[in-house]
Design brief:
Blueprint: H1 2-11, H2 23-40, H3 43-48, H4 50-61, H5 87-111, H6 115-130, H7 133-140, H8 151-160, H9 166-174, H10 187-196, H11 200-216, H12 271-280, E1 283-287, E2 292-295, E3 304-311, E4 314-322, E5 328-333, E6 339-341
Parallel strand pairs: 2-6
Antiparallel strand pairs: 1-2, 3-4, 4-5
């Protein structure tokens, strides 16, 4: 379903159009192509994307000025809905997102034999890194509360792009007031930035607080939007609303998802499922097609974890247990074609 979806939005969005009218959505398409290639190692599929992918990279490069600052236009300047009223966060986030696009473009163009474009992506990325302070300083000095909508989104992207030390992003923004200021879509990138800072336990705690609150209210799928401020007096979603209780579905929501327009089954809110596999179960893909994976578990306060990880060669089965001495002992069963490093 993933390649069909990627192909559908590609074919529905001839260049120089932006996917869904949003420049960031086109960037996400590029980043997903990079991730999909690493998970699947499907060079034939990647080659099918060559014309559109290289055309998109030329378009993105044309939106970077001589000083290395992104000037994305012609589409909504958008990270996610909760951050949409924080322009300084959007500016910082898009600079970081564009830098990630240049890094992904460099990697994919090398695979596709587009060496000149790969070098151009690298040069533009270097220019954007040097110019980062022009968008980061206004964000840092904006005076917006560190847990306000947009702050944690921008801080996480800056950390993941290497434009802010993850430890600084975590300390100044991500851990402030726990799950307040988290969002369903960008929560995944906030969790990844916390992991980059080594704060695995803090990320586990936020998953319990933010996504766990949805589960406590009867959710079996995660929601398009959620805010911890909705909790007082809220009823469960799997029962008729009792007198005196708030309808957490019908009474809340904003922007394009007010009231019952608000989806309670939204794939982009499911980031913890990936995060738990990547950081608690500890699976990181090292080479395309999962030919090499690194398994480094971070259990935090968990006593054990077990799970599976799909690869093109079959499933890796993993169990980690924490002994009385605090050391983690692992049992890993992987297909013979997959090299596991620790």
């Amino acid at each position: 379903v993933i390649p069909k979806s990627l192909d559908f939005i590609r074919d529905a969005t001839p260049l120089p159009g932006w996917m869904n009218g949003m420049c960031s959505y086109s960037i996400w398409w590029l980043l997903i192509q990079r991730d999909w290639y690493y998970y699947q190692g499907d060079l034939a599929y990647l080659k099918e994307q060559k014309d559109y992918l290289t055309g998109l990279l030329h378009l993105l490069i044309s939106k970077v000025d001589e000083d290395g600052v992104e000037k994305l236009d012609g589409g909504g300047r958008f990270l996610d809905w909760p951050s949409s009223e924080n322009p300084v966060a959007i500016d910082a986030g898009l600079q970081a997102l564009m830098l990630q696009a240049m890094k992904a473009g460099n990697e994919l163009c090398k695979v596709l034999g587009e060496d000149a474009l790969a070098a151009e992506c690298e040069a533009v990325g270097n220019r954007m890194t040097k110019a980062a302070s022009k968008v980061i300083k206004p964000f840092l000095k904006s005076g917006v509360a560190p847990d306000a909508p947009g702050s944690k989104q921008a801080a996480s992207l800056l950390a993941l792009a290497g434009l802010m030390k993850p430890e600084e992003a975590d300390r100044r923004y991500l851990v402030v007031n726990g799950g307040h200021g988290f969002s369903t879509f960008y929560g995944y990138y906030m969790l990844r930035a916390m992991a980059a800072a080594g704060n695995y336990q803090g990320a586990i705690d936020v998953i319990r607080q933010f996504w766990g609150a949805m589960l406590d209210l009867g959710a079996t799928t995660f929601w398009e939007d959620f805010n911890l401020d909705w909790l007082p007096g809220a009823s469960r979603i799997d029962e008729l609303v009792p007198v005196g209780k708030k309808d957490i579905h019908g009474d809340y929501g904003a922007y394009c998802y007010k009231g019952f327009r608000h989806s309670l089954c939204h794939g982009w809110a499911s980031g913890p499922t990936s995060w738990l596999s990547e950081y608690v179960l500890g699976v990181q893909v090292v080479e395309p097609g999962c030919r090499v994976v690194r398994i480094t578990p971070h259990l935090g306060d968990l006593e054990w974890v077990e799970g599976t990880f799909p690869t093109p060669y079959g499933v890796i089965t993993i169990r980690h247990e924490k002994g009385a001495d605090g050391k983690v002992r692992s049992r890993i069963d992987a297909p013979s074609e997959v090299k596991v490093v620790r």
